[in-house]
Amino acid sequence: MPLKIAMIGAGSIGFTRELMHDVLTVPELVDSTFAFTDISERNLEMVTALCERDIAANGLPAKIEATTDRRRALANADYILCLIRQGGLEAFRTDIDIPLKYGVDQCVGDTLCAGGLMYAQRTIPALLDFCKDIREVSKPGALFMNYSNPMAMNTWACNQYGGVNTVGLCHGVTVAHWQITECVELWAKREGLLAQDEKLHRRDVQVVPAGINHQTWFLKVVWRGLDFLPLLSSLFSEHPTFRNTEKVRIDVLKRFGYYSTESNGHLSEYLPWYRKRLDEIPQWIDLSDWINGETGGYLRICTESRNWFETDFPNWMAQPAPTISPDIRTEEHGSYIIEALEAGRPHRGTFNVVNNGHITNLPQGCVVEVPGLVDSAGIHMTAVGDLPLGCAATCAASVRVQQMGVEAAVHGDVNLLKLAMLHDPLVGAVCNPEEVWQMTDEMLVAQAQWLPQYADAIPAARERLASAEANGTRVRTMTTQGVARIAVRSAEEMAQDAEHMRRLTATANKGNLERADQPEPSGD
User: Fold this and answer.
1) Residue 487: count of CB within 10 angstroms of its CB
2) Is the distance from CB of 145 to CB of 82 less than 8 angstroms?
């Protein structure tokens, strides 16, 4: 029987089209049925039209069933992919703009910090609704693969409260593995161990990554039997590009001894040291690309991509459809997991799963990111043991914030949400307790339409804000666009680089466009 693969949030052009193409490069999966569902009928129509055009042009037997009825899409599904951004760009703007008033300057704001915590409050109730539908109408044992951030909190909630086997998937480890490979390659050429025209693939460099999503550490880096951990600090510091674009990661590498998987902008907002003093932020970031630390950079790039797709859609449909073949397959894990489970070709990757002794000095039951192997018998995760103490301490602080964030989202607990904000590394470094309390109230009120679990509590938050304003006890905020904010470009400005915008909009990994433009099969 052909597989049924449901995609929730299929109006996301980058993820939906890429992941569908990936699946259709596998011979055993070319007759799959893709069930696309989204709350935006317009976005769903555009993405479906484009994907149906791709399937027809390649003469494949695959089918697409598009519907705004989620339960219909999930009925009898074998696999479910979650691609949603709950609240869309409207809510995302408040994740960035409200904390800025309190001095919390975020680059991404979708994993931890004030933005990530509020994103979890919006997303977790929706995911638990999805899980209920999956239990009731999907195939027994259907695998839920979550791509939506905040990855750890979402995956944690689905496994603990959703009753559905959920694995979280992220490309951060893969991108960082390529960076390390590039450093090893430059060193090897300098040492005469590689010819100048030779290229290393990341498969050539063995690594052991472990930690939590967006705070995973490379505990081992080996090439040709050589241990590169002692060399990484100097190799990254000497790299002609990374020494400018990865200043936070290099500083952490120098002090901790281990390279962290996530981008400079991402990492800078998960730690209490690099963005707490606004006048110091410029020395740690680089504005050659948003992901290197730009204030609200991901919000800007997502806004531009969505605006461009809506403006440029007729041109997308007029262009020749791509040839769906293994040489365009991305390194996103989803299709490889399905291929391994259904066709038996093993796949090695790094996945987000419930910690069941995989990392022994992080709490049991939290969500960790560790290596795993997938084959026809299932997903088999590695027991890594202890993280180095510095790495474990950083992850543990975030894990407890995540835990409070999950519990607050599930139970609609305002006080617990405020405690999560207070304990967040960057928020706690920037704000005093009263500022945290007021900021959280303001975010709850601004996002009320996406927070059903707080329906009874939000009127009180609104009253507290009004009362503080009336009696003069409201804490002072600032009017700022952030230290490194870049304005969203107009359609006319984006049209000056139309081909780049099409590539950017079409890729799921907007932080690594150069690599995404030239995808290589993982072969794992």
Assistant:
1) 8
2) yes
- Residue of 21, 79, 171, 258 marked active site: 171
Q: Cα separation of 217 and 486, whole Å?
A: 31
First to last CA, the chain: 26
Q: Is 171 in the active site? A: yes
Catalytic residue selected from 270, 298, 336, 454? 270
Axis-axis angle for helices 414-423, 389-411 (nearest 10) = 160
469-483 residue pLDDT tens: 999 989 999 999 999
Provide φ and ψ at 57, rounded to 5°: -65, -25
- Token readout for 290 is 């948003």
For residue 274, indicate whether it is catalytic.
no
Structural domain boundaries in the chain: 4-89+119-169
pTM reported for the whole predicted model: 0.95
- 147 and 509 Cβ atoms separated by less than 8 Å: no
DSSP 8-state code for residue 273: S
Burial level of 247, CB count in 10 A (0-12/13-18/19+)? buried
What is d(CA 433, CA 421) in angstroms, rounded to the nearest whole number? 9
Closest Cα partner for 384 from 348, 359, 418, 410? 359
Q: With a cut of 70, which residues of the chain have pLDDT below it?
A: 511-524
Bridge-based pairing state of the strands 367-375 and 347-354: antiparallel
Domain 4-89+119-169 indexed as CATH 3.90.1310.10: no
